[in-house]
Write a sequence for this structure.
C-alpha cells in the first residue's frame, strides 16, 4: 500500500492516510481510476503544509491546485513528490493533486483554518454554567468561535455557539440573515441544544453562506456569524471506492447483486457492462473487448434467477465530463447451495 502524510512544520504527524490500490480485473486498454479516496489534511494558519505524493517516482511529478498548475514561489517549494507551503493561509485551502507522467493521480483536500469543520474533537457534552443573577447573554468560549470555515464537500460541518446568562438564553440560527428551516437544505440539519451546536451532514455547494447564531433572553441578545465555503467543487473525474464491488458466487436460480460506490462531484453517468468472450477471446479483431450494456444510471446491478450463462465478468463504469473510472467483478454460478464471496 502507499502512505501519504500531512506534517506540521515541527515534524509531528498530523494525519496519516493509506491509499490501497483496488484489485481490478480490467482490460489493459481501460483507463485507471484514482488510487484511493482523497486525503483530508487540516493545518492552522501560519504553519507549514507538507504533502507527500505516494505515487512511484518514475518520471516527472506535477502538482495542481483546483485544476491549475502549481509552481515554486516565495512560499511554495516543490521537490518532485513533496510539496511544501510555508505560512499557510486560508486561501491555500482547496483540492490538490499530484500526477506522475503515465501514472495515476492522487488527491488531497486541504483545509487551512483555526476552526474544526468535522467537529470530531469538539466536546459536545460541555455545557455553560447557569448563573442565578439576571444577566444578558454572553459567549462562554469566544476564543473558539472563529469566523471562516472551509469544509470539504460531502463531509459534516458543525457550528457551535455556547452561551451563558440568566435566564438561560435561547438560540436561533439564520442563514444569510434569514431564519434557517429544515426544508432549506436537502437532508435538513440537526440542532443539539445542550451543546449549542448546529450540524449539517453531507455538505454541498448550495450550503455555502453566512450562518448566524442568535442568543437571546429578556435582558438582551448577542449574535455571531460563521462564513462557510464548501471545498471540492473543482472538477475531477470519478473515483470508485474499493470494497463495494466484489466477486460473488451464487447457485443456479438465485439472485446476484453487485454494488458500485463512487466519490465524485457533480453529475455522473453509471453504466453496467458485461464482457462477453467470443471464440475463446475477450477481445475483438481490433482490440477492444466485446461488451454488452446491461443497465445505466444505477449504483446496483441485480441479476435475477441466475443461470450458468450469467457467469462471467461484469464492469461498473462511471463517467463525467472530466474522465471515467472502471471496476470489475466476477460472477461464479454453481449448482450447489453455497452462497459466499471469494477474494
Amino acid at each position: 500500500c502507499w502512505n501519504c502524510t500531512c506534517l506540521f512544520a515541527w515534524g509531528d504527524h498530523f494525519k496519516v492516510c493509506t491509499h490501497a490500490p483496488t484489485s481490478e480485473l480490467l482490460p489493459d486498454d481501460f483507463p485507471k481510476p484514482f488510487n484511493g479516496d482523497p486525503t483530508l489534511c487540516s493545518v492552522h494558519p501560519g504553519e507549514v503544509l507538507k504533502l507527500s505524493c505516494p505515487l512511484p517516482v518514475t518520471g516527472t511529478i506535477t502538482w495542481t491546485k483546483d485544476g491549475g498548475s502549481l509552481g515554486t514561489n516565495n512560499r511554495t517549494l516543490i521537490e518532485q513528490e513533496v510539496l511544501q507551503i510555508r505560512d499557510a493561509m486560508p486561501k491555500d485551502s482547496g483540492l490538490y493533486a499530484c500526477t506522475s507522467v503515465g501514472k495515476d493521480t492522487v488527491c488531497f483536500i486541504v483545509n487551512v483554518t483555526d476552526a474544526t469543520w468535522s467537529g470530531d474533537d469538539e466536546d459536545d457534552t460541555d455545557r455553560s454554567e447557569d448563573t442565578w443573577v439576571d444577566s444578558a447573554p454572553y459567549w462562554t468560549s469566544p476564543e473558539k468561535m472563529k469566523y471562516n470555515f472551509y469544509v470539504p464537500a460531502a463531509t459534516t460541518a458543525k457550528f457551535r455557539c455556547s452561551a451563558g446568562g440568566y435566564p438561560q438564553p435561547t438560540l436561533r440560527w439564520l442563514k444569510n440573515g434569514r431564519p434557517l428551516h429544515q426544508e432549506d437544505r436537502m437532508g435538513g440539519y440537526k440542532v443539539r441544544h445542550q451543546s449549542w451546536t448546529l450540524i449539517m451532514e453531507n455538505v454541498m455547494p448550495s450550503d455555502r453562506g453566512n450562518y448566524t447564531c442568535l442568543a437571546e433572553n429578556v435582558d438582551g441578545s448577542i449574535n455571531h456569524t460563521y462564513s462557510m465555503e464548501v471545498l471540492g467543487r473543482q472538477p475531477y473525474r470519478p473515483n470508485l471506492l474499493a470494497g463495494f464491488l466484489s466477486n460473488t458466487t451464487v447457485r443456479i436460480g438465485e439472485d446476484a447483486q453487485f454494488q458500485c460506490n463512487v466519490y465524485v462531484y457533480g453529475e455522473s453517468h453509471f453504466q453496467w457492462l458485461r464482457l462477453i468472450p467470443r471464440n475463446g477471446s475477450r477481445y475483438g479483431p481490433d482490440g477492444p473487448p466485446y461488451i454488452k450494456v446491461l443497465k445505466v444510471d444505477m449504483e446496483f446491478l441485480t441479476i435475477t434467477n441466475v443461470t450458468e450463462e450469467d457467469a462471467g465478468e461484469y464492469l461498473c463504469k462511471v463517467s463525467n465530463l472530466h474522465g471515467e473510472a472502471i471496476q470489475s467483478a466476477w460472477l461464479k454460478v454453481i449448482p450447489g447451495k453455497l452462497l459466499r464471496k471469494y477474494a
Q: What stands out?
A: The chain has a mean pLDDT of 75. The chain has three domains: 2-112, 135-231, 239-341.
